[in-house]
Each structure stands twice: as structure tokens, then as C-alpha cells.
Write a structure and sequence with these properties.
- The protein is of the alpha/beta class.
- The protein contains 16 helices and 11 strands.
- α3 runs antiparallel to α9 and α5 packs across α10.
- The longest helix has 18 residues.
- The termini are far apart.
Length: about 450
């Protein structure tokens, strides 16, 4: 085992990256101080790739971006005071994007580890051994021939399935794509009946050794990493759109007394989406679009849309315990006790027949009195919003309020408790579903798609 002394580490180095078009394997290398290389491999299906000069150049730019973004998994192990980017340096726009991703994406990590990272993640502009990466894409890269087709990220939960079915209804050609080896995601992808693309990512084994020796650990902006991976996959496979399924609630974090807002899902939020999309256009390939199809909608609007589908009831799961790299996973698709299980159950309940929802989860979570603390956190009642990808407190309050008036739900233990103990303390604005089901115009969806999509959700 390589010795790791976090306190003595002064430098995090981006050493090199490479892509083999014959095998589809990308190698991303990092190091601390003068220590051994931490080498991550990302394998893209479809090799060998025959790339003309323009596309090979775009792929190289996407690879460089991936190298820089994926480094967050390793940087966090020691958070040293200095960053070195070997080889070609980066320009100010690239440094600004990376600083935002690392500072905001490691917000929860910093909070849990008692760290202050803002203003202390110094991505250097320029470089000691070559010209700075240019902000302008050479004109030859602006006309990359692309198939008009979306590469849609699928995560195994309700959100991506709503996007996939919406695009299908609107006649948009798509390939469903995911990163990793989750059997649950694979089963959901296959259930769609659409073409699939599975990228595999192998973290450096040294990182796990370092974790055993006291490396700092915690949540990273994994959506940012997966976005960079799928942007490169899109260029390799000829897709012109990379589509995620993040709702507008992802832009709002947990309000921590004495700390302020900490957003567990920052890289699913609107600020990241806007900045990353703009960067792809200016630094990678001008014709490559990146957006979230669900950005205009609340979690409740997406839940209502999912309730109109039934082909995935016994296939999907939003329970994050299914996707942990390490640790125990639930015996069933839903553990029933985590914030994601709580929220998805609560969000679907106003829109789905009770027997159907209970059959999906295998139990009625709202009739389990001992789960009150978990639901209180969702309501932001005597607790803050959980560090999970769940909706805003006002959405949970509106859903619970609707259930309190429902003959099917009002006798359940937690709904009855809400009606008797909590309801009277809420503002009137927290007691209506209808306003939360209205879409926003703040999004990056292509104009030609937005009108039909809005009509589809309102149908």
C-alpha cells in the first residue's frame, strides 16, 4: 500500500490524459506532490472509432475537459493548497468553470468535513510548458457533421424515464446512455426498447488505498463528471444533443443555520447547466447542445407526468442506496427509509392510485409513525432539507397538504399527524399544488422543442 500523509501534501497535479480510438479507452492521470500516478480509465463503447481531423480535435478537447472535471474525485482526498496542470495550460474561462465546479460541487463535502474551500481552489491560468488553451474553437470545428439525435442520460429513476418518454412522444430520435455498471439502470434502459450506450468508469485503485489511510471523503459533483463523459461520448457517436433530466428544484439547496445554503445536487442545478452548456459551445464543439429537459418543471410536475406512465412500475428506483459504490444495498429496489424513498413516495401519492403506489414500494411509508423525522425534514419542519436529490420543502408541504384532504390517505399515521400538528403552522402559500405545477421559462431547451414539450406536460 502506497503511503498517504494528507497533512503533508502541498500539490495536486493533473499529469496527463489520452484516448485510444482503437479501443475506446480514455486514461486520466493525477498525482499528489511527486507521488505515484492515480490513473482512472473511462471506456467508451463502439470502438474502433474512425475520426477525421476535425472530430478528433473536438474529441481531444472533450477529453481535456473530462480530465479536468473528473479530477475532483482525487483532489478532495487532500485538498492541497496548490494545483498544477502539466502540459498545455488553461485559459481564464476554463479556470472559472473549474473553480465553480470544485467550489460549489464540493459544498456539502466541505461542510461535512469542516472546511472552507471558497477562494482556496487556485486553478492556474496559463502554464509553464506551452501555450494556453485557446478560448476560441477553430472554424473547422464549427461544422462537425452530427446526427440529429439526443444522447439521453438515464439514471434508473422516474425523472429520466419521463424525459425519455416525452422525447419519444415528440418524435425525437434518442439513445439512452449511462455511466457505470448498475444492473438496475441497465434493466431500465433495456425496458425503454431504445438504443443504449453504456460507458464504464474505473477509479484509480490507489484512491481506495488512500481512503483507508485517512483521505478526506464525501460527496462530489458526480453529475458534472457524467456530463463531461457523455459530452465526449456524444462526439464519438455522432449525437448533437446531451440531455439530462434535472428539475428546477435541483437549483435550491439546504439552508443550514449559521452556514447558509449548501446544495447537495449543485451540478444538477441551473447555474451549472448554463455554464457547462456555454463552455461546450465555445471550447469543445459549437454544434453540441447540453440541456435538461425537465428544468422548467417542479418535482411535483414530473411526478404527475410519471404517474401517467405504467410500464416502468416494477423496474425503476430512485433509492440512492442502489447506486452506492461501497456498502450495503437494499434487498429490494426501495429501502423505504432514506430521504429519496420518502420524497418519491410523497411526490407520487397525490397523482397515483394508492394501491399502485403501495405495490411499487411494497409498503405504505406514510402509515409508519416511526418515519416521522424523515418526512419532517422533507417538510423543513424542525429540520433542514436532507442532503439528497429531493424537491423543495414547499413541494413536500403542498403534497402532504393535498393528502390531508384525500379520503384515501388522510387516515394514515403521518398524514393524520400532519393535519393535527403541523398544518396550522404553515403559510397559506404552502397549501396548494396548482401553482407548483406551472412550468418556468428559465431553461436551455431548444426553442423548437419547448412548445411541444410544454403542451405534452399539460395534456
Amino acid at each position: 500500500m502506497t503511503e498517504f500523509d494528507r497533512a503533508s501534501i502541498q500539490v495536486f497535479r493533473f499529469t496527463e490524459c489520452g484516448f485510444d480510438a482503437a479501443t475506446g479507452e480514455a486514461r486520466l492521470a493525477y498525482a499528489f506532490d511527486d507521488g505515484p500516478a492515480l490513473v482512472e480509465t473511462v471506456r467508451f463503447p463502439g470502438a474502433p472509432f474512425a475520426l477525421d481531423a476535425a472530430r478528433a480535435d473536438a474529441v481531444q478537447r472533450a477529453l481535456r475537459l473530462l480530465h479536468l472535471v473528473a479530477g475532483v474525485s482525487y483532489y478532495k482526498a487532500a485538498v492541497p493548497p496548490r494545483i498544477v496542470i502539466e502540459g498545455e495550460g488553461i485559459d481564464a474561462a476554463t479556470a472559472a468553470l473549474l473553480t465553480s465546479i470544485y467550489e460549489n460541487g464540493l459544498g456539502e463535502f466541505a461542510y461535512r468535513n469542516g472546511l472552507t474551500l471558497r477562494g482556496k481552489i487556485p486553478f492556474p491560468v496559463g502554464g509553464p510548458s506551452g501555450p494556453t488553451l485557446s478560448a476560441a474553437i477553430p472554424s473547422g470545428l464549427k461544422a462537425l457533421p452530427q446526427e440529429t439525435r439526443a444522447l439521453v442520460a438515464i439514471g434508473g429513476g422516474k425523472d429520466s424515464l419521463v424525459s425519455i418518454e416525452a422525447l419519444r412522444a415528440l418524435g425525437v430520435g434518442q439513445t439512452v446512455a449511462w455511466v457505470g455498471s448498475s444492473p438496475l439502470i441497465k434493466a431500465c434502459a433495456e425496458r425503454t426498447g431504445l438504443p443504449t450506450l453504456n460507458v464504464t468508469r474505473a477509479l484509480s485503485p490507489l484512491l481506495f488505498d488512500y481512503n483507508k489511510q485517512g483521505a478526506l471523503n464525501g460527496h462530489i459533483p458526480v453529475t458534472a463528471v457524467n456530463s463531461a463523459i457523455l459530452a465526449m461520448a456524444a462526439l464519438l457517436s455522432g449525437h448533437d444533443q446531451v440531455v439530462f433530466s434535472n428539475e428546477r428544484s435541483a437549483s435550491y439547496g439546504s439552508l443550514i443555520p449559521g452556514t447558509g445554503e449548501v446544495n447537495h445536487q449543485w451540478s444538477k442545478g441551473g447555474d451549472f447547466e448554463r455554464d457547462f452548456a456555454a463552455y461546450l459551445r465555445t471550447h469543445v464543439a459549437a454544434g453540441l447542445s447540453y440541456y435538461s429537459l425537465l428544468r422548467p418543471f417542479s418535482e411535483l410536475a414530473v411526478a404527475r407526468q410519471f404517474a401517467r406512465l405504467d410500464r416502468y412500475d416494477q423496474h425503476f428506483s430512485s433509492c440512492n442506496r442502489n447506486f452506492h459504490l461501497l456498502g450495503e444495498r437494499p434487498a429490494q429496489r426501495w429501502c423505504g427509509v432514506c430521504p429519496k424513498c420518502h420524497f418519491v413516495f410523497l411526490a407520487l401519492a397525490p397523482f397515483m392510485p394508492k394501491p399502485r403506489l403501495v405495490a411499487i414500494f411494497g409498503r405504505n411509508l406514510l402509515d409508519e409513525a416511526d418515519q416521522a423525522p424523515g418526512f419532517d425534514a422533507l417538510l423543513e419542519y424542525r429540520d433542514h432539507k436532507p442532503f439528497e436529490c429531493v424537491g423543495e420543502g414547499k413541494e413536500s408541504r403542498a403534497a402532504m397538504d393535498a393528502l390531508a384532504d384525500s379520503p384515501a390517505w388522510r387516515e394514515d399515521a403521518l398524514v393524520k399527524r400532519y393535519a393535527s400538528e403541523i398544518r396550522s403552522q404553515l403559510e397559506a402559500a404552502d397549501r396548494g399544488l396548482a401553482p407548483l405545477l406551472e412550468p418556468s421559462d428559465d431553461h436551455g431547451i431548444p426553442p423548437t422543442l419547448w412548445g411541444p414539450l410544454r403542451a405534452h406536460f399539460g395534456a
